[in-house]
Amino acid sequence: MPLLVPARLTATVDVPGTVSAVAVPVSAIVCAPEVAKVGVHVVAVVSEAGTVVVVVLALVVVKMVTNAGSAKSGPKATAASQSVAQAVATVPAAAFDAAGAGSGTTAPRALKGAALTADGKPRVLFIGGEFCPYCAAERWPLAVALSRFGALHGLGQTSSSANDVYPSTPTLSFHGSTYSSRYLSFTGKEAQSNKIQGNSYAPLDQISPADQALWKQIGGNSYPFLDIGGRWVSVEAAYSPQLLHGMTHAQVAHALSDTGSKVGQTILGAANEVTAAICTLTHDEPASVCTSTGVKAAATKLSNGS
User: Fold this and answer.
1) Alpha carbons 249 and 243: distance in angstroms, whole number
2) In 3D, which of 235, 267, 121 has the Cα closest to residue 185?
């Protein structure tokens, strides 16, 4: 079940037995695994003067309990088809430039803290859940952006939960995948699967204690969580999963090279924003990527804090 937080506000959530006073600065709706465990929806509202928390519990718990027997697990992730993996890895430069900074997307925001590195390179950390529709949307631009700096191996594909909002959103999965790059390191973890276990989803990837602490401190243990080198962070989907409603993986993959597609332009715009953030850590290398028209436009959006 998702944690619902209103646009461009900071939420402080305090639910006994679940999340304890976690501050989550977001500008969209995210998924909270802890709340999912007890089957509640939480709506948190924060004003400029102070914090007002509104918790909506009634009926949601009842629905979770009464439908527990009929709820179905989502599809188990499989290896991404060759056509999908190739489409993610080989987006034409012209398509990136046509997308520019994107429209209707939310860029990563600046983060102050210790640099996140591995093997002497900037490190990108993603933590999601395969059931989460917002993670489903976020993985497409992230995988596309990462492919501009290196190669993803063993990428999976699946769909978000059929029982949540934006049901069965087509997506990728980083579970079991690896990444090779001369410019950066990437850790992609799917903390929960699509398989229903009790009133939640079964655990999947193990998160290291250090990453767990970072996720809790910065992201409030909500999905999706994206930390780019300790300098940029995103704790939300870059765009609404509604954009992918009713599409197949093949259709989303095809849209990535279609400059006339709203889906493709939105995903590539978000990918340009992630790319621009990464380029600030790689000293604008590779130059063919970091000095491209689309990435330059996205870099302006980053600096504007849009």
Assistant:
1) 13
2) 121
First CA to last CA distance, the chain: 28
When divided into structural domains, the chain yields a total of 2
Is 174 in the same domain as 103?
Answer: yes
Comparing C-alpha atoms, which of 156, 271, 268, 216 is closest to residue 34?
216
Together in a domain, 126 and 24: no
Q: Please give the C-alpha separations between residue 204 and each of 117, 189, 191, 196, in angstroms, as whole numbers.
A: 24, 9, 5, 12
Judgement on whether residues 62 and 90 belong to the same structural domain of the protein: no
Between CA 34 and CA 17 the distance in angstroms is 9
Domain of residue 34, residue span? 2-66
**pLDDT tens for each residue of 153-194:** 999 999 999 999 999 999 999 999 999 999 999 999 999 999
Pick from 190, 94, 182: which is nearest to 142 by CA? 190
What is the average per-residue pLDDT within 78-86?
97
